[in-house]
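Hi everyone,

Forwarding the result from last night's run.
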Amino acid sequence: MTRQEILEKTKKIVYDCVPELEGVEINEDSVVNTDMGMDSMNFILVICKLEAEFNVRIPNRQWNKLSTLGEVVDAIQKYMQ
């Protein structure tokens, strides 16, 4: 799976889990908690859906270090290998 495919699937999952973002453009530089307005419950839901979709398990300490959508995509790609 290419990085672009991971990015597109990740964006779809974010939009599905956070319907308030409908109509808001998110990109790799979007900061997950501030630009996307996700609260902790939305963030946990997104994490669960991403790990299930890509069949990865990203350690909690790693999630805490990720701030942008691009960093999330990088982490998914890293743990897929």
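The chain has a mean pLDDT of 91.

Cheers,
N.
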